[in-house]
């Protein structure tokens, strides 16, 4: 498909983590040109937590390195950073070091948690959020999402990666303020609209399937996707993975709000949008009309619940510490879930470093749908 002159374009190419990655980034910057000399550019990878690159949890450091290198050649002033999912300002440096981004970013790395700003947000769920100053003041934000599944949002992509604008414990507050999947989808879009990235380059070379965003299974797709519209980029990715954007709540709402085109027939796409067979989605995802009804209207009763796998649990307390509503607490025998308090945000499963939280299905098991745990 040819790339026409349009604001909502998607570029897709084959790629690998090798010496030719710089050429891929150069081409993307040609396709989406902007004045970058002497401009302050925030490169925002996904640094969810301290995970090695081969786990496919975080944006691969090779892509970060190529983007920084190419931008510096163009005379840009580059900074690199993210607010990890794990709480505490010191976690940003630890997470960046473990996932390899710190080394590849070099002197460009900044701790986005050091300069928080309280920002008024137009939202029905919250009136303010704590946002990194660098996000607000950069001349350009280049978003480097990882293509992953997500037990709450179905997909972690370009739009979801902007949740990393939010500093520290405010993420927990926002989760608590948006107690259903549909609520969180709308709240996520409220954060996204604080500063839609000017360019999005998605790392889909090594993606994650299954029960993401941290405990799924790595899978090589060998692709890089890019767009100047995060919604359109994510929508193209969902088509590539074999589902419709309407099955991803925040993309469904974003399309209806006019935040981006979600129909690939109405996008200007260069490259192959060939569907990837057999890609596995989270156990929380139910396809079709049944899933639409359950996820939208009956999620409080139908959704999976976190369940501690005692043989894996080391009683570190991270799950309890990251529960936004206090549904998970620690006892002498390990974590305990208060099912009445649980809002099915799956932060406990997302942050568990031992993969000791599985999602148990209530009557979803009877439907026999969704991916099996990897």
TrEMBL record:
Domain 4Fe-4S ferredoxin-type residues, every copy: 304-332, 333-362
Keyword 4Fe-4S among record annotations: yes
Record Pfam families: DUF362, Fer4_7
Keyword check for Iron-sulfur: yes
SUPFAM superfamilies found in the cross-reference section: 4Fe-4S ferredoxins
Keyword terms: 4Fe-4S, Iron, Iron-sulfur, Metal-binding
Domain of life: Bacteria
Entry's Gene Ontology molecular function annotations: 4 iron, 4 sulfur cluster binding; metal ion binding
PANTHER family in the record: PHOTOSYSTEM I IRON-SULFUR CENTER-RELATED
Full protein name: 4Fe-4S ferredoxin-type domain-containing protein
Species of provenance: Desulfonatronospira thiodismutans ASO3-1
